[in-house]
Structure formats: structure tokens, C-alpha cells
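Entry for the shared binder. Reason: the reviewer on the internal report wants the predicted structure included alongside the sequence.
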Amino acid sequence: MSIVVLASISWLGLGQVSGQISRISVFGNLKDRPEKTSQAINYLVVGSDSREGLTQAQIKKLKVGSTAVAAGGRSDTMFLIHISKSRDAAFIVSLPRDTLVQVPAHISQDGKRDIPEKPGKLNAAFAFGGAPLLIQTIEAKTNLKIDHYVEISFAGFTGVVDALGGIQVCSKVPINDPKSHLVMSAGTHILDGLEALKYVRTRDFDGRGDIGRMERQQQFVSAVVRKATSSGTLLNPIKLAKFYNATISTVKMDEGVDKNDLLTLAKQMRNLSSGNIRTLTVPLSDPNGRVAGVGSVVIWDEELSADLWTRIRNDQALVDTIKPSPTSSAQATAKPEVVDKFKTKTAAENPCAASK
């Protein structure tokens, strides 16, 4: 979905757009940041659980508590989006919110204490220091420079889904999650904004926690991309204006994104389609780890995650195509071997197709 939100804002490209986007200062005080090694663009997209923008009726239906419950917002979902330097491919990498990280030294929220660097969870960095500390933590963990930051609230999410006329999802098993309040039979469903929000937040019905939830979120992102591209949303001025109005008031972007950036991005992103957007989760060695003083954590696979970030940093392909050695006529005619060690999926793949 994040790609589509960025594209919708970009394609509109009118003079008033950049002035209407809510700005958030995130990069100003960051030091010792990784160097850029290509002209590719890296976005960090955070789904905040802020209730700001939701009506009381929506809050009641979602059963997520009052607007005061998460007035500052917490990081509910995190994606890193890499757009290639040629702007013809994109990777969307899910970052588990319980990832074990070293949270850098920072000032306490009340501004009175210096907190030293210590182990913690990734979403704790957002809770302790907002977007700047989260970016600093991710850059230290990945050695990858974040170029832009986007934050989408509950209201922004529901507005996007409703503006697209609902999103189709499918589940092989029935879902009854008392925490997200989602009740859904097995099979294919078209969800409106509020039901879709329940769907991407549900995590406790299958025992797979955040890992299962991230897989559903990736499928949902792909479904949004398919819906937007197949319906012509991004090329239809009327649909695009509706889409824009649903997102612009509830999306925050860093101060560095200006009108020219949006217009340039709009032109470059026209090469993107659901077939060359790949989704994946950062490789894990232990999704159910435990660390004293931190609690249950998700631990990345040290070797595979390092390879992933190196490839993204150098703007390289994530899927390798290995050609057979032409030592014989049989080998010469063999098909190249495709190696996808990061287990990526394309947004063109429709998990609901088999359910129809």
C-alpha cells in the first residue's frame, strides 16, 4: 500500500500538494549516518496506531479505545521501501516490530535524563524517541541510509482502502480474533477500510504472532497494488483526486520532500507495476527469541540479513539467475536456475486466485 500512497500523492503533482502534506522533522539532528552508494531511494514507512482522524463511530466499531489511548502513536507496522535508481523496480521489506536492536543513546521523553545505548525492541525506539530515534536505530542496524520518512495513521489506512472501493483478501482458515475483533470465514472477502484495518492488525488467532501478521500485510500490500493498477486509479483524475483526499490529511512526510521531488518521483514511478514490486520479510534466525531485560524478541539471520542490506545498499537484484555452465550440449540448453534465498513474492501474485 505504501507504494500506492506515494504514487497517488506524486501523480497528482499539483502546486498545493507539498504545502498540504503534514511535515515531520526527522533527519535534522542525526549524525554519523551511512553513506549513499547509488541513486536509489529508500523510504521508511511506519503505520502508526494513532487514532487521530478517526470518528467516534469508527473508534467504537474498531474497539481500539479513545483517541487519548495512543495520542502520540506507536509503530504498529514498519516497511522499508527501496526504489531502484532506474525507478523500474521496488522492494518492500517488512521489519518486525519486536526486532532485537541496540537502541542508541537518547534523551528521555521528559527531556530530563540521558538514556544510554541499550538492547531493546525496534518499536521501543519509536516509542522512546519517535521517527528520529527509529531511523537512527534502523540505519545502525542495516548500514542503509533512509532518504525519506512516511507515517500513515489508522485513519489514513482506512481512507485509502475505502477510496479504492475495498480490497479483496482470502484466508484458508476462518479467523476469530478477540483482540483485533476480526471475525471472518475462510475464503475470499472484499474488506472496507475498517475491516481491512482489523485484518492487517490481527495476530493472535493462528499462534504465529507478528510473523503471520506480516505475511498477511504483504499480501494486502500486493492486493492494493493490483487493485490500483488494474482499475486505473493512478491514471484516472477523478479516482486519483478521491484517493488523494483520503490520504493527504492523514499522511506525514519528512521535511525534505518538496513539490519537485513529488513530480520527479511521479514520472519515474510510471515504470513500476505490480509485476516488478517484490515483498519480503527480513531474514530471521529466531522469531521467538528471548533476551533478559527485553523480553520476547525477533532475531535476524546475521548472514542473510547482512547480504540483503548489502544488495539493497548497492541497488542489486534480490533474486539470482544462475546460468548453467555450457560444458555440454545438454547443459547449454538447460534453463537458468532461479535462486530466491530471501523468499520474495511479487505484487502480481494473487493468493486469492486459487480460491475463486
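Summary line for the report: The first strand starts at residue 22 and ends at 24.
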